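Give me structure tokens for this 880-residue protein.
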Amino acid sequence: MKKLSSSELRQLFLDFFKEKGHHIEKSASLVPVEDPTLLWINSGVATMKKYFDGSVKPENPRIASSQKSIRTNDIENVGVTARHHTLFEMLGNFSIGDYFKEEAIEWAWEFLTGEKWLALDPKKLYITVYPEDVETYSIWRDKIGVAESHLIQEEGNFWDIGEGPCGPDTEIFFDRGEAFSNLPEGHEENYPGGENERWLEIWNLVFSEFNHKADDTYAPLPNKNIDTGMGLERIVSVMQNAPTNFETDLFMPIIHKVEKLSGKNYEKEKNKVSFKVIADHIRTLVFAISDGALPSNEGRGYVLRRLLRRSVMHGRRLSIEKPFLTQLVPVVVEIMGVYYPEVSENSNLIEKVILSEEKRFHETLSDGLNKVKEIVEELKANGQSEISGKDVFQLYDTYGFPLELTEEVVEEEDITINYTEFEVEMQKQRERARSARQAENSMAVQSSLLSEVSVDSAFIGYDHDEASSELIKLIKNDAFVEEAEPGEAVRLIFNESPFYAEKGGQVGDTGLVLDKDNNVMAEVLNVKSGPEGQPIHEVKVRNKLHNNNTYHLIIDKHRRRLIERNHTATHLLHQALKDILGSHVNQAGSLVEDSQLRFDFTHFNQVTEKELKEMEKQVNQKILENISVETVETTIDKAKEMGAIALFGEKYGKHVRVISINDYSKELCGGTHVKTTSEIGLFKILSESGIGAGTRRIIARTSQGAYQWIDEQLSVLNQTTKLMKLQSLNELPVKVEGLQKELKDINQMNESLSAKLAEAQAEDTFKNISTVEGFTVIAEEIKAKDMNQLRKLADKWKQNDYSDILVLGLRNEGKVNLIAALTEKATQNNLKAKDLIKTISPYIKGGGGGRDDFAQAGGKNPEGLEKALQSVSTWIEATL
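Here you go.
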């Protein structure tokens, strides 16, 4: 067995499969592109969906990759187990309808045991096989020569996660030796494939040979696929003879840095969990932020916020009280930056985001600590020794205050936590998250129809709006047919087409299919790309269509021109965003239609009105400059040399199109564009908003759409001007300002009158004094505007010493408020306002609290106010 670094092992794996004719696919972004079913890319196969379900045909059916992945379904186990991580790399080789079981098994064995490769001892390898998969068992035994004592039949070896490709799998285990045994001999899990520490699963080979259909039946796949997965962290731990994944070169440099920051020794520390959690979580934060995800309160942003806060809390356990995570970023970059250059390129942004979030959490901790102390003081004042689970959950959910910190504070005060209530609230939150999350189906049921269409069907719409073309495939109900009748919805493929297929954010073209006499044969409703990029026309048939006939295709030219103006405007806007907000801004999605454009981008602050105006001004300036929009077809490498922006997460072929607007903007793009910027006419931003985890959205219009919007706004302003009886629009701001001042003056007058009315009423109220047990009491309902006026009346009562005890009630729009105030004489005789308010507030179906001399409550039962006020005397008598 060789001793290899993680970088050497990763490269060795990719080199091996490159020798076997595989295309080495670059790791995709952790943020899924055009896949709403996934929160994160969580496996190597997740990026292969389009190939496995047949929607896209790869240039090479053999693919290998090292794919960064995130799984966060069991965060609490990170650092506790030997191999649980939030971020991991999955080494994998894939066959899309090419080789199958025999080659996959032979190559796996060669890579693991070959002297040129990992050179593992074959005697230490054990194999599990699905019992019904006789073929796989035979290959391992008869062709590879694995002894039957090392072959285990396992019922669980069938990969199936719902509809789509599925099939048996075979797993390879490495025997780490007796020293790693954590179970007694004879234990039911003490075998290769069981839950134990001795036999470590290092590679899983999945043989996708069935379609799991919606009716829960299984049918043979038209194209059988291979999907394998080998966790880099696991195999590195084997090659470096490490007790756990954390003692490898992927994590130890981070742990050593934490040692320096904390002054603690990892090896001597009894509890190593905190070191491991920090080392794991900082890797996830670095990679996720680099790929455009940002901390927030929802979705993947919430995951990042949670990981960062867990890291901070574990830092506190190691006596690190100040922000420290940014100091770990360069270490992660040094370990991973060679193979993943994006983390190095984005390191400044990563550090900025982490530092901002970490500082914010330290402020949150301070606020949460104050809130815990308030709750504790109130509990002790009421003689209670248990804090409710609901209060603890609110601290956790609203203030971001961790349970373990709450435990520390209340333990010092001899107060316990109602964990049952807390767990109930946590379960409610989990279910809310579960219901909000879409089902993570692996892929669609595979269809062989389009993947079998290996015909040349060229898009000629960059230069032509219409063309005569032969209909070469007519598809109805997922089958090829020879003709289509009027009224039917079918799909058409021509040998060439001017219709743009929906992709890259640009919608598909619409238009008409005509015969030689210009009769309308079909209406094109949309166009989508086939597995080989064929424009597939979705049409409504008007007159009978025949396969192999020649038809005249004509796009809706006016609609296309509007789309092109909006598309070119997105390129101008993208650059304006980078110029004004910063180079960290990246496109996170777009929708280019004829009516408007929608542009999503990564940014972690709200965009100001001033910044929006500056962007709009900059884009319009480029439009006025009438710059030529040039297109160059070149290789991906030359495009990058030109400085063209490649959208992260997008997959580009060997040849790409670069859209250049002078030196101002250069982007890789397959869409259609205007010839010069002046064709755009006008650019107008309609709105800017946040849409999720560090992602914002601009909606804008150009040319005809912008003109229509401006015309609509002017119409509203003109109508308002007439209603105000003004001569011109210019007078409108002054008039509105004047009306606002008038309204403010009226409101102030109303406030003053309400206060005077309440004071006048109070004069009578303060005369209604009763005596209970030697204490003078005022307990009355009063007509005041709000709680603020009640407090002012209480201040007046205090200044004039009207009575020993004051209780005032207020009904307001179906709700009720109470205040209670006591003099020093009353409080010295064991009468407390907070006790009084807690006693009488149930009558109004409410609650409250406060100090010994002043307390308040709110409720939703105004009918109970009279009873609450009457019960004041009863409370005084009972207390004394």
